[in-house]
Write a structure and sequence with these properties.
The chain is α/β, with parallel strands linked by helices and 581 residues long. It is built from 15 helices and 14 strands. Helix 11 links the parallel strand 9 and strand 10.
């Protein structure tokens, strides 16, 4: 939206500047033309004055010739005569100079003043000269002066007409210029409307439509999240009830497998919590696949254990068939695999009231590639034909959510991201079958088990939560670390100033000095090149990226799983593994 506002502002300012420039140019041109017309009026006024002065000079000459007694009167009239003839000469020079200054004279005026037969310039000068040399006692000269003055009056009158004609032509040009400016202004407005304001309107409408689209998407996302959160607490109860149920049985019967089932259910609960955290980032493009080696039996048991009690309470039987491959180690994304299986089992339990739910796990090889195929089969009513058609047409999947309102769409995304294939169909004898197949890599059966040992490497654990610290210390001690624990970043930098460690496990949110500041201090102030592993419950990409940017080497998300912790430490070279038989 800010980009649109900036673009609109630029276009609007450009339009205003263009119009302001045109108005300024028009105003300047009009001022210039009006000044010219003012000069024209002055010139016409002076040219008209010449006619009057020629007659006034003749009148004064006659009066001077009629006065013979009074010397004082003669001097007065002669003074008036000289004043008039001087003004006539001055005006004539002004008019003639106009032609010399800038070709002000039109072609007709130029001929009238300087060319035969009129030669008004020469005759006006001669008239001035004769008046200045006028002898009032000579009647003949007075008569000649009268004839010259009358002829000059006619030519001066014509000169005034020529000046007026030239001025009228200038007025006509002014009208043309004014019309041209008006047309240019109209053209500019049309161009602004077409090239500036119409695109601006289209851009604003596009921005409004985009905002409406984003609003609808946001409202839809909020609606989905609201339904998700409403269902999440219900879905988390399944593994939680399994944990409490098996712990209660263990308290009564003290069977080790019951405690193992509780641990398995706790792992499943952790999977669901991770999926909840990732919900806001779920999209087909953003799914991150993390392949690792693990026992297939462990993954499947983690999935099935929480649902056995739920199925039993509903009168259902959950059976797992693994065809003798339970101890096979294979490489795939075990966490996402477990989540897909749990969703399919959860759906089967929800939509069946009796009978058996069968989880079939097979591994087969096709053209040198191993595939893991999993089927969830029930004995219920099966899929509705319309729903079944929609599910098998990936392009039409819209909102078929089950479980945590994430359901089959998410399952298909995950299977596609793992390069697998998803299928839905109804069984001939009743019930539904949902199956998927993903490529996997089988571990070499001849591979010896690894013996992990840190050989007494010194580890600094920076953790403010006492319970987490105890668990982490125990996990690290089992790997052979000599662990030193401090409860915040300030204590960590103080102990690092005097003691050396092989690896640091750093929490991020702590009092006094958080993990970010502590990592920065270790790298910049203490200049230590020690392996730093961030241990946090916050896996937001921007926060992890900030820690890595400050100098952390790797991160792991709480709650820590021993196998993932081991794999990461091996990858970083902090610990080593030796084969044993």
């Amino acid at each position: 939206m800010l980009k649109i506002i900036k673009a609109v502002r630029v276009r609007y300012i450009f339009a205003l500047l263009a119009m302001a420039l045109l108005v300024s140019m028009a105003a300047g041109l009009m001022q210039f033309l009006l000044f010219e017309k003012q000069q024209d009026a002055k010139i016409i006024n002076i040219a008209g004055m010449q006619r009057m002065l020629s007659q006034k000079v003749l009148l004064k000459a006659h009066r001077l010739a009629s006065i013979s007694e009074s010397t004082v009167a003669m001097q007065s009239v002669n003074g008036e005569l000289q004043t008039s003839i001087n003004l006539f000469a001055q005006n004539h020079e002004f008019l003639v100079d106009l032609n010399a200054e800038g070709n002000f004279f039109s072609e007709q005026l130029n001929r009238w003043y300087f060319l035969k037969p009129v030669m008004l310039d020469q005759r006006s000068r001669e008239f001035v000269q004769r008046i200045r040399n006028f002898q009032p006692t000579e009647q003949r000269e007075l008569n000649e002066l009268y004839m010259i003055s009358q002829a000059l009056l006619v030519d001066l009158d014509r000169a005034v007409q020529l000046f007026e004609q030239q001025s009228n032509q200038g007025v006509q040009r002014l009208r043309y210029v004014e019309s041209g400016i008006w047309l240019l202004a109209m053209l500019l407005l049309i161009l602004e409307a077409k090239l500036i304001f119409r695109p601006m309107e289209a851009q604003i409408l596009a921005g409004i439509n985009e905002l409406k689209f984003q609003k609808n998407e946001t409202e839809q996302a909020l609606s989905i999240k609201s339904r998700f959160l409403a269902r999440a607490s219900h879905e988390l109860r399944t593994p939680l009830q399994s944990i409490l149920g098996y712990l209660d049985l263990y308290r009564q019967e003290r069977q080790v497998h019951q405690l193992e089932q509780a641990v398995t259910s706790a792992n499943q609960l952790n999977v669901l919590i991770n999926e909840m955290h990732d919900f806001s980032r779920w999209s087909n493009e953003k799914i991150k696949i993390q392949n690792s080696y693990a026992k297939l039996k462990t993954t499947i048991e983690m999935v099935a254990a929480p649902y056995k009690l739920s199925a039993q309470k509903k009168g259902l039987t959950l059976t797992v068939q693994m065809d003798g491959i339970g101890h096979t180690q294979l490489q795939c994304d075990h966490q996402h695999l477990a989540w897909v299986c749990s969703q399919l089992i959860d759906n089967a339990i929800k939509f069946n009231d009796s009978g058996e739910i069968l989880l079939v796990v097979k591994v087969h090889t096709l053209q040198m590639q191993a595939y893991l195929k999993i089927q969830v089969i029930d004995q219920g009513f099966g899929f509705d034909e319309e729903l079944l058609s929609t599910l098998n047409d990936h392009g039409k999947i819209d909102n078929h959510f089950q479980g945590m309102q994430l359901g089959l769409v998410r399952c298909q995304w995950l299977v596609n991201a793992m390069s697998g294939e998803f299928k839905f169909f109804n069984r001939p004898n009743g019930g539904a079958c949902v199956s998927f197949s993903i490529p996997v890599i089988l571990a070499d059966n001849g591979t010896s088990e690894r013996q992990i040992n840190a050989h007494g490497a010194k580890a600094l654990l920076v953790e403010d939560n006492a319970i987490n610290a105890v668990i982490l210390q125990k996990q690290l001690s089992n790997l052979g670390f000599d662990v030193q624990h401090v409860s915040h970043g300030k204590a960590a930098v103080e102990i690092l100033a005097s003691r050396s460690f092989d690896v640091i496990f750093m929490d991020l949110n702590m009092p006094y000095m958080d993990g970010y500041e502590a990592i920065d201090h270790i790298r910049t102030m203490l200049t230590l090149d020690i392996t730093i592993i961030v241990v946090t419950a916050n896996d937001e990409p921007q926060d992890i990226a900030k820690a890595i940017r400050l100098g952390a080497n790797e991160y792991i998300v709480k709650p820590l799983q021993q196998d993932k912790l081991t794999d990461m430490l091996l990858r970083l070279g902090v610990i080593s593994a030796s084969e044993c038989t």
